[in-house]
Amino acid sequence: MSCLPQSKEDGSSEFPPDWRDDARMTFLFSAFKENRDVDATDWDGKMDFWTPLIINHCRRRDAVCVNLHELNESFRRKGSVPLGLGTVLQSMYRNGKVQKESEFATNVDSGWLSWGVGLLLVKPLKWTLSTLLGSGRVPLEESFVVIELIKEKAVKLLETYRSSPLSDRCLLSFQELRTMATDVCPDETTLCLALLQLQRDKQVTVSLHEGEKLVKFSQQGQGRVSPVSDVDLGIYQLQRSEKLLGERVEALGKEADRCKEEARALLNEGKKSQALRCLKGKKRVEKRADRLYAQLETVKGILDRIAHSQTDRLVMQAYQAGVAALRLSLKDVTVEKAESLVDQIQELCDTQDEVNQTLAGGALDTTDGDELEEELEGLLKESASDEQLNLPEVPTGPMPSSKETGIFTDDFFCSLPTVPDSRINITDEDLDRELCRLSISGAGGEQRGTLSPLKKPEPAQ
After folding, report:
1. How far apart are CA 136 and CA 274, in angstroms?
2. How much is the CA Rg of the chain, to the nearest whole Å?
């Protein structure tokens, strides 16, 4: 059971600022009216102050259970205790924020009652009698479970298991779980309540096997935990045997080393016969260790095969699910239906092609052919007239003489150079060189704007 420390008179940071206001605290420490209808503002103001304060106070103390006596001592201020905490607990109980510890335990299946739920029951009869008799008072020792906090503990416990080295084991003993969850659940009561909440959420199931308390968690990806099966129990027994054999092999190894050291010490003392007996004992211990080690290897081999079989089972389940899905998707689908559909598609395509050809060949043409011929002839005439050259008119008078025109006169003929009467004395090499020079001169001439004159061929002698 949680043990909440007493409050501090100086109003430490764990209490709200109103804790230092004497006038305000006098009002909050006063008793509630008979019912909310008398003064709703007074009632709601006190509830809004005490309800979150109780929950946060328990969270800071890492407690999931609380009773009226502990709250009175924790919230004692200047020698006075709040007079309305019993009413606050009753309101939280009606609103589902807290639940009696006895009800929290008995609302889960009877599997829990077979192993130690009695430690969770704190005088449930007293609360039942007071309720039946119509008393509005809450017993001081009646323990309440804060639902919000126990849900947080349950989530942390499940996360701790899944992140621990024990997560690959389907079953855990209660003692193993107790050791693993020390940082999450400080006491056995908190651990039991967290397991009860997980069982409510279908994340944990419990079993009692040969007087041993066993816990099974849901695995990653599972929506809920499966019941403890014979396979789970068999694997658990093999794992327990593996652990025991390992511990015995280790102990025998230490005993063999001790016998060896003892024989060495006796030999140093000259006690040869006693040293021989120690060595014989060492040999016997080693034989036992070898025998147990062989058994340990056998158990490990069986566990490995079981692990492989579980993997194979998952693969088979996946195959079965795939086959079922494929069969469902191919329902009413046959080769004959597929061929019929292909034939229908081909027929429809052929019909569409025939329709298109019919529509293209049967287009209406109302244009007169003679009109088209006349229009085409007009276009040709227009093109011919556009292409005619703008030539001058043909003269109709006599042609003028050369003398009148002054073109081919005697002076013109005299100005012409003398026609050479001999062969030109020039070779092909000279022509090539002259051509190259002209090419170079032409390239430079584009910049200078002049060309080099050709070399005049010399007449042959």
Report:
1. 81
2. 57
